[in-house]
Amino acid sequence: MDGLMQPRPLTIAHILERAERLYAHKEVVTAGEGRLTYAEVARQTRRLATALDTLGVPAGARVATFASNHRRHLELYLAVPATKRVLHSINIRLPAEHLEYIVGHAEDDVVFVDRALLPRIWPSAGRLRRVRHWVVLPDDSGVPIPADPRVLDYDELVSGAAPATGSFEETFTLTDEQLASGLCYTSGTTGPPKGVLYSHRSTVLHGLGTLAAGFIGLCESDVVLPIVPMFHANAWGLPYGAMLAGASLVLPGPSADPDHLLRLMAAERVTVAGAVPTVWTGLAPRLRDHDLGATRFLLGGGSAVPPALSEAYRAAIGVPITHSWGMTEISPVGAIGGTRTQHRDAAEADRVAVRAAQGQPLPLVNVRIADVETGRELPRDGTAVGELQVAGPWVAGGYFRVDAGSSFTADGWLRTGDLATIDADGYLRLVDRMKDLIKSGGEWISSVELEGAIASHPDVVEAAVIARPDPRWMERPVAYVVLREGSAATADELLAHITPMVAKWWLPDEVVLVPGLPKTGTGKISKTALRDSAAASGRDRAELVQPEAKL
Ligand code: ADP
């Protein structure tokens, strides 16, 4: 027998209209630009909705953004899906070849681009003939605007449009909740980038997931700072989550300068912020120079947060960095770390170990581990290591217009490519990415664990461990380490530091001190680039020092 409850659709239009009605006075602050209330953002969004009609953007068409975190980007986050178009947020650090591939593959109809970022995308415009309009989001960069009939100014476009009236939400039907709302391409470390096509339903449920108490628990009193870019998997759902909760939003603009971010956190009394570990590493030395007393929750995700980094935050401001584990394919948040009541009376060292884990899956997310060879499910005993697989209403079930290949199991679970243990309480602990694990003499060595051990040395800023081919053992670990400025620590000292922490045969064959590590477009340490330059340079380490070169 069916229940008799109303089958109302879950839509992003509801997020907009809820913020407009209930939290009209709450604010969206953009660094360097100023403050707007949700009422004002909603008014802009309603004008933008009409402007999209005027531009003739059909329902279902892809509308791309090539932009940093600011309130105009938020208006696009709302207006595009609320009017049944699809928001395609593009990573602004992609090489031209990938950029052209994904704009072509997505068949973007319009591209909204920050004026400052024109030099990164406009040279490709000639090869992107399907794009009918290029709408420039103004800023004070002074970058020349191309004289081309396809180029329009965002503020002129929006201010010249009448605000759409009435409820967008009411135009959705139950079946519409499955409509595509957003599109993000994964980095394509293997093969071309693949598009993850979010639906209204998945986005709203994921947004609610960020409100789940005991996890991130966004609420009305929060002031939320997504440092994570709005092009990186929906800024981890923080903008939609904040609006659902009625929390204020602080958007940092284009600068990722540590002092800028810390000043913003202090001035706006930010309570929740999210960023990749490399960003938190950059902020760590300056924490005590700012009043971060309002901070209650810091999310670190995209790669493992070294326990020493999290503990340094706890020591300095009383708030550790909490693991957020996920993937673009999971909208992206799948699990959140941290201790629960059962750990309250545990010894501090044990609580540190719990905090080092990726945590428990959010409500509605199912996880399991499977034997890499046989695919058989492995026990949740905290020791068996297997490929992490995930299922849930905000987990991808396929990719946009490409064959999913072996990314999904026969019963439809997503294969994450991560190796993990799961314990009896459902805590995930990532051992490594499958492709980063080091196989030495038939035994596995976790690069993540070695990096965590090295990073616990007080002079270490960042560390990355990769495999070096070895005639005898097949592979051996080699560590690349960035030291604090002025540090006199040596490779031998670092090896001595980690010797008590890991098995003897895990000790890296070499510790190479470098001035910087290559980063991916989303700011993570790029082991692919590190492997490539290590292979290309042979034993000439001088090549490995250009941290920004791969951006
Ligand atoms: P990319 O492949 O471009 O890095 P994603 O941003 O989707 O794409 O990255 C997802 C991957 O990042 C996960 O499969 C996992 O390996 C890693 N990751 C994400 N969050 C964490 C975390 N909290 N701890 C360790 N690894 C993480």
Q: For the residues shown, what is the average pLDDT?
A: 95
Query: Per CATH, what is the topology of the domain at 35-200?
Result: Rossmann fold
The CATH H-level homologous superfamily of the domain at 35-200: ANL, N-terminal domain
Q: What small molecules are bound in this structure?
A: adenosine-5'-diphosphate
Major sheet strand order: 2-1-11-10-12-13-14-15-16
Strand content is 15-25%
The rough form would be described as: globular
Largest sheet: 9 strands, mixed
Roughly how many Å is the radius of gyration? 23 Å
Q: Termini, distance in Å?
A: 56 Å
By DSSP, the count of extended strands is 25
The CATH architecture of the domain at 35-200 is: 3-Layer(aba) Sandwich
> Helix fraction?
25-40%
* Low-pLDDT ranges: 539-551
- Content-based structural category: alpha/beta
CATH class of the domain at 35-200: Alpha Beta
What is the overall number of helices? 15
